[in-house]
Amino acid sequence: MNKLKVMSIFGTRPEAIKMAPVIKELEKREEIESVVTVTAQHREMLDQVLTLFNIRADYDLDIMKAGQSLSEITARILKGLEEIIIKEKPDLVLVHGDTTTSFVAALASFYQQVSIAHIEAGLRSYDRYSPYPEEVNRHLIGGLANFHFAPTYGAKENLLRENISEENIYISGNTVIDSLLSVVDEGYSFDNKQLNQIDFNNKKVILLTTHRRENLTGGLRNIFNAVYDLTLANPELEFIFPMHLNPRVREVANDILGGLERVHLIEPLSYKEFANLMAKVYLIMTDSGGIQEEAPSLGKPVLVLRDTTERPEAIAAGTVKLIGTEKDTINYVVNSLINNEEKYSQMASAINPYGDGLASRRIMEMILYYFGYSNEKIEEFIGEEERILEMNL
Asked: The pTM is what?
């Protein structure tokens, strides 16, 4: 048989982190010719991940420009990918998650009648504006994809409710756990000197991340005001906030938190630095989706600064709590958690429902199966949710 040509397309740092172990699996397989295409929807942050995992892009659209709209990003990616897909004629295009790059890559592939596999398929918040535009992107990619690699049983159920054929859905676990486990080191020393001076053993250090569009209006100021109050009320707390590059986020952060002795406003970290920081902190406050999946593997409770989440499995498992962006609610929940050892231990010891570090290998075996290069359909990932269901049957 001829080699199966698989093109991976991604453009942001989170996509690169989650696609990296898949690409490394592609490179191992003699049956596969791997082609990597990046849009550079993020530039510097994307390049850091490519360097970390030793991935070389065969094509780079380099679309990043300051202040460009979603329409501009969409049009530039669509036109650029059209030429590459026509030239390479891949048998399969891999896209990940819910970014504009992923949606447009799926659309461009569909226009050329190329099969599409969607990794991290089936996530849903069922609120089209939260997260925005990611929630609608997920639905659109789901309608275009031929194969759906769902990270959890719940994600698979979402796809089945949308009338996607079960034979084209496979529960793989989440590839972010594969990446995370490959970079976390118990004896890690930070490149960031400020982080090396923090007493992680004797202080309750909270990692904060926030960048969502829907939080940029009132939510962001509420979050930072809550951090201000918590810092003054609790001498044992320290906060670390790697500031997003968005000028609006930085302006509000510096206005409210600048100058506070136990609040560290630092520059964005490389993925390896950030992963090892997560492993050292006491708990995490975030509006990120990926962190909701990663932190449970490290035994870290996560407080989600959003009103909805497309990752309900971690909430059901007890390792994640959805708390919104109201200042008083944030203060109440954080205070109750840091002052109640039993509550904290329950969250910290909950089982991660998202993966076991083998998702990329499962995805690769199933791609070979779908295209007739293997006769064996390997078992799906079984998370805690599925185990509970099996016990009750």
From this structure: 0.86
Successive 10-residue mean pLDDT values, the chain, 393 residues: 96 95 97 97 87 97 88 96 98 97 98 98 94 95 98 96 97 96 93 94 96 72 96 97 88 93 94 96 93 91 91 89 95 96 92 90 97 94 60 39
Q: Mind telling me the catalytic residues?
A: 98, 120, 134, 211, 213, 244
In single-letter form, the type of residue at position 162 comes to: E
User: What CA–CA distance (Å, rounded) separates 104 from 100?
Assistant: 6
Secondary structure (H, E, C), 74-95: HHHHHHHHHHHHHHHCCCEEEE
- Are residues 337 and 269 both part of a single domain? yes
Q: Report whether 43 contacts 20 (CB < 8 A).
A: no
Report residue 279 CA to chain centroid gap: 16
Q: Indicate if 212 and 150 belong to the same structural domain.
A: no
Residues 6+ apart with CB under 8 A from 9: 37, 38, 39, 81, 93, 94, 95, 101, 102, 105
| Within-domain flag for 180 | no
